[in-house]
Structure formats: structure tokens, C-alpha cells
Amino acid sequence: MATIRDMRKTMVIGTPIAFGYRGEDTTSPLRSSIPDSVEFSKTNLYTECLQLRAENAKLKAENEGLRAKVVAMQATNSAEKFLEIREIAREQAKEEVRAFFKEHHGEAIFPSDVMEALSLDYDLVYEICEELEREGAVKGL
Length: 141
Prior knowledge:
By secondary structure, the chain is mostly helical. The protein has helices spanning 4-10, 36-79, 90-103, 111-118, 122-135. The protein folds into 3 domains: 1-33, no CATH class; 35-79; 90-135. The chain starts with a helix and ends in a 6-residue tail after the last helix.
């Protein structure tokens, strides 16, 4: 069985499968025998490759922009203070929540806003807001 090594010894330079053995010139008639459809496909592949490279560069730039935004968001989130929840009697909490609503009359206030402003437990604030709504002291949550 012949191997590639054997083929090199018997090849004539310039044949379609010449390997350029030991640096000889590998001029080949193969190029002139390529059908136009193959050349067209080669051109299409080259054009598609250029388009994909451009798209890849665009996506890399977008990726870097997103990475920068994530880093900025992480820095912002880590810089936020931690909320220390106060434990107070329910009646005192109810009075503070009622006073908070009076101070911010006419504004859209959510239980989370009250929780952050007064440093109270969210569940407690939510229950108090529902209770104040039933009493008619506040409108809708």
C-alpha cells in the first residue's frame, strides 16, 4: 500500500495533488480547472466570513459595555447601607406609620417605602397599612 511519503517521491510537480516536496514550486493547473460555481461559493464564504467578523466585533463591544454596567451596578449595590430593623411595640409602630402617611399626604406610598423610612419589619408595616386602610385612615395599597 502506498503512503503519502511514497506519493511524494513519484509526484510530478505541477500536478493537482503536488505537495511542494522540499520547497519546490507548486504551480498547479488545478486553479484554472475550478468551475465558476465553486469560485462563486468561495466568494460567498469570504463575504460571509467578513460579515461574521464584523458582527463578532460588534457583539464583543456590546459585551464589554454590559460588563462595565454590571461592574458599576455591583459597586452601587455593595455601597448601599444595610437596613437595621427596629423592634418596637405594634401600637408604637402603628402610630409611626400613621404619622408617616400624614407627613407624605397625597403621595403614592408603598409599604416598602414605610419600611425603609421607619426601619420596621415589612410584614408588620404591611399588616398595619391594611389595618389603616380598613379604618379609612389611608386609601388603597
